[in-house]
Amino acid sequence: MLASLSIKNYALIDHLEVDFQDGFSIITGETGAGKSILLGALGLVLGKRADLSSLKIKDEKCIIEGEFLIDKFDLQLFFETNDLDFEKRTIIRREILPSGKSRAFINDTPTKLSVLTSLSDKLIDVHSQHQTLQLADNEFQFLVIDALANNSKTLTSFKKGLKIYKKLSKEFKEIENRQVEAQSQHDYNSFLLDELIEADFKENEQGILEETLEKLNHVEEIKLLLTDAQNLVDLEDTGLSDGLLNYVNIIQKLSKYGKTFEDLSDRISSLKIDFDDITKELENSNDGVDYSPQEIEKYNDRLQLLYNLQKKHQVATINDLLEKKQILEVKVSAVENADEIVKAKKIEILEVEKKLDNCSDILHHSRKKAIPELIKQLETLLKNLEMPNTSFKINIIKGTAFFSNGKDELEFLISTNKGSNYETLKKIASGGEMSRIMLAVKSILCNYSNLPTIIFDEIDTGVSGEVSNRIAKVMSTMSKHMQVIAITHLPQIAAKGQYHYKVYKTDKNKQTLTNIKILSQEQRIQELAEMLSGKDIAETAIVHAKQLLDQEIH
Question: Which residues does UniProt call coiled coil (predicted)?
Fold first, then answer.
C-alpha cells in the first residue's frame, strides 16, 4: 500500500508530505486546488515521463518520494530479478534536474524507467476518467476475463512461445528471400566456384610461385655467381676452405693457454661447421640450377591464372581468393540444399505452432468457463448501482490467427434497458453508466488480483443522489481487501471514507501554493457542509453533513 508521499519543488507545491492509511481514504478539494497536481507527482513516482515544466523553481531539482508497504505481496522475485534490494518499506524516488534530465531510484538503487513502470504496475492502479474508455477496448476486456479465469501462467507461456514463433517465422521469410536471390545467381556462382576449385590454389602459394619464377628468369646470373663462390672456396692454398682450416688449427693450439682461447676455439670450430654446410648447399644449388623454358612457361601460366582470378574477384591476395571460394561454396550449397534447410525450419515452426495451439485451446476453454461468472457478478453489482436492467452478452470465438493473447476473438455487448438490443459499450452506455460499469469491473478484479492500492479519480462523474451512495458502498467493500483512495466532489461518497484528506491552496510570499492535510472529525463536517451548500455554509448543511457522517459510523 501507499504509506506516504513527499513532494518538493513540483508545480504549485513547495514542500508537501502526507501519510496515507490502509482502508478507504477520501481526497476532496475545490476545482483547481491541485488534486491533479498531486496525481501528476504520484505519476512520476510510478514511472511517467517528466519535463522541465514540472519544476516550480527552474534552477532547483524536483524530488518526489513514495513509500510503499510491500511485505504481503510476493515481490521478492521481482527485486532479485532486477538486482534491487528488497525492503518491506520500499521507497521509490524520482528526481528532475534543472537540466531536464530525470533519475529514478528504488531503495536508493538507480534504476531504469522501464523497471520502475513494471514495479508500479504491481503496486498501484490509478484510475482516471480517461481510463473508463478502456471498457470498450478489447485488450482490457480480455484482461478482465483472464483475471477471473486465472490465465496468468498460461498467458505467460503463450507470449514466450509467440515471441519464438515470430522470430522463427521471420528467419523462415529471410531464408525464402535468400533462396530466391541465390537461385537467380546460382549458375553463375557455380561456374565461379568450379573455376576456383579447378585452380586449386594453396595458401601462400603466390609467394612461392613469384620467388621460383624470379629464380628461373635469372638462372644464368645465379649459376655464374654460384661458380664464383665455389672457386673462392676451392682455390688451392689460397681458397677460403684451406685458409679457414689453417685458422681453426692455430686457434685450437692456443686453447690450451686459457679459458679465453678455449672459448674462441669452440666458436671458430662452430663457424667452420656452418661454413662447410653453406658450401655444401651452394654446391647442391649449383648442380640443381638449369635453364628450362618449359619450367618458366609453366610457372608463368600458373601465376597469370592467379592474377586473372584476383582481378576477376577484385581481391589482392591468394587468401582473399580462398575466402571468396568459401563464400561461393556457402551460396551454392544453400541453393543445392534449399529443400532440406526450408524443411528443417518448417518443422521447427510447426513444433512451436503446436504448443501455441495447445495454449490457445486452454485459454479459450478457461475463458468460456469464466464468462458466465463474470456476467453474473457484473449484473449483480450493477443492480446495486441503480442499473437493474443491465445485461451482458459476451461471445468468444476461436479464430485462426495468433494474436498477442491467443487465438480468441471477443465480442463484449451490453443492454441497459429491458427489451433493447445488445450493442457495444461505445454505442449504448452514457458517461455515468460507463463509470459505474468500470467501478463494477474494478470491484470484481480486486477479488482476483493481489494489487495493494487503487486510486479512483472522480469515478463518480455523471452520477448523483442514491447512485453516489451505492458507489461509495462498493468502494468501501473493496477497501476491505486493498487500500482504496477516492478523489471526489460528492459529499455522499466523501462521508463514507475512513480517512478524509483535503487539497487546498494558500498564498505565501506572493506565491500560490498547493498543500494537503488530513481532516479531523470537526473539519470533515465543515468540508462536507461546504460541498453540500458552497462557501456560505447553511445550518441545514451542517446538520446534513453530521447525518452523513453519523450514517457511516452506524
Answer: 318-355
How far apart, in whole angstroms, are the C-alpha atoms of residue 444 and residue 377? Answer: 7
Report helix, strand or coil for 106. Answer: strand
Residue 357 has pLDDT above 60, yes or no: yes
The alpha-carbon radius of gyration of the chain (Å, integer) is 44
Label residue 117 by pLDDT band (50, 70, 90).
very high
The rounded distance, in Å, linking the Cα atoms of 54 and 448 is 36
Instruction: Provide the grid cell at 396.
Output: 468468444
Run of H or E including 118: helix 113-121
Which of 103-117, 267-281, 296-310: highest mean pLDDT?
103-117
Q: List, for residues 484-523, the tens digit of each pLDDT value.
A: 999 999 999 999 999 999 999 998 888 889 999 999 999 9
pTM for the structure as a whole: 0.68
Confidence label for 554 from pLDDT (cuts 50, 70 and 90): very low
Counting every residue written for the chain, the total comes to 554
Kindly report the number of other CB atoms within 10 A of residue 148's CB atom: 19
CB 55 within 8 A of CB 553: no
Is residue 57 within 8 Å of residue 473, measured between CB atoms?
Answer: no
Share of the chain above pLDDT 70, in %: 95
Sign of the CA dihedral with 339 first, then 341, 347, and 349 last: negative
| Amino acid, res. 351 | E
- Cell triple for 295: 619450367
Under the banding of pLDDT at 50, 70 and 90, the label for residue 103 is very high
Q: What is the 3-state secondary structure (H, E, C) of 73-102?
A: CCCHHHHHHCCCCCCCEEEEEEEECCCCCE
What residues are paired with 111 via a beta bridge? 104
Residue 103, phi then psi, degrees to nearest 5: -130, 150
Q: Given strand 423-424, what is the order of strands in its sheet?
A: 391-403, 406-415, 423-424
pLDDT at 317: 84
> DSSP labels for 4-56?
EEEEEEETTEEEEEEE--SSEEEEE--TTSSHHHHHHHHHHHTT----GGGBS
Answer yes or no: is pLDDT of 322 > 70: yes
- Cα 529 vs. chain centroid, distance in angstroms? 52
Contacts 24+ apart (CB under 8 A), 403-408: 404/139, 404/159, 404/162, 405/139, 405/142, 405/146, 405/155, 405/158, 405/159, 405/363, 406/155, 406/158, 406/359, 406/360, 406/363, 406/364, 407/357, 407/360, 407/364, 408/142, 408/360, 408/363, 408/364, 408/367
Cα 145 from Cα 527, distance rounded (Å)? 40
Q: Identify residue 136 by its one-letter amino acid code.
A: A
> Is beta strand 89-96 parallel, antiparallel or unpaired with respect to 24-28?
unpaired
Residue 225 has pLDDT above 80, yes or no: no
For CA atoms 492, 493, 496, 497, give the dihedral sign.
negative
